[in-house]
Amino acid sequence: MDMILTKPVVDGQKYKSIEVHKLIELNYDLGTLLAEDTNEFDVHHLRKDKNDYLLQLSRDNTQLLINQIWCLPTERIEDAIVAKLPIQKTRLPRMKHIPKPRPLTKWEQFSKAKGIVKKKKAKLSWDEQLKKWVPLFGYKKTQAEREKDWVLEVPANANPMEDQFEKNIQAKSERVAKNELQRLRNIAKSKNIKVPKVGVSNSEVSSAKDLQAAVTVAKASTASLGKFQKELPKEKEAKGVSDITPGASRKRKMPPVLGDVEKRENLAIVDTILNKRPKLNIEKAVARHINNEQVESSSMDRPKSVKKSGRKSKDNFKRPKGNSGQRTGGKSGGGRKRR
What we know:
Blueprint: E1 2-5, E2 27-29, E3 34-36, H1 43-48, H2 50-70, E4 74-77, E5 80-84, H3 106-114, E6 124-127, E7 132-135, H4 139-148, H5 164-190, H6 208-219, H7 261-274, H8 282-301
Antiparallel strand pairs: 1-5, 2-3, 4-5, 6-7
């Protein structure tokens, strides 16, 4: 490990001396730039001004550490003086474990077994057709390919109406997808995940819904889009597979083509936008008016109700005379004798 050293400008009035005296010499670990001070604290100075004492102590120990670094072998690299640090003695604790090395890919294992050494390639290559240097990757390479392949020859056994440029673009996208699939398989292999070639990803984790979707997709992978495939008894169609399998999609109801259908629809939309007045239902309005008149007439013909008082008049009941115990009046017209 190297460390760049710079000499400070020393001023006797502004800076302190680089010589620091300690009763007990410090323990140094220059590999980790560590200095350990075992001297006792000055309790009187520490209690008097704690911040100033700790600042001076840190300055002196740092100066001693820098003095030890200047004692190491140095060398000049360009305009800087570099000190070679020794191997560290102190083991510093780690919060996490040391990361494990990345597992080798399938190609790296093959190249290691065969002894294939990777050679460093140049970033540019000379193109004889374009007569210029072309990068091996990047957007400039794509521009160069377009300039180079501005015209393509149609093969003898190919359809003359087929677009060869579109065919090349599709082939390139398939190669990119294949490489991405292989990369994901390498990751799954490094993590000990079983990835089948076709079908459901994992039979232990997959649910019945996933299995049904896989069956539906497999049936619709035929030339007839699953039209002539036989169905099992009590077999249900998987939900959400209509976007994947055209055979499982439902037919949409399209408007009729004959006549001025589009013109009528546009006129109806314009009519609803311009005619903002609400439509009047005459029958409903007449029925409501007749109902209101009937309610008013019935309320006028009804006689006024007479309020009945809760208290009875004094004429209906009379107090008994003396102690005879007789009571006169009342609805019954007679009285009772109390004995």
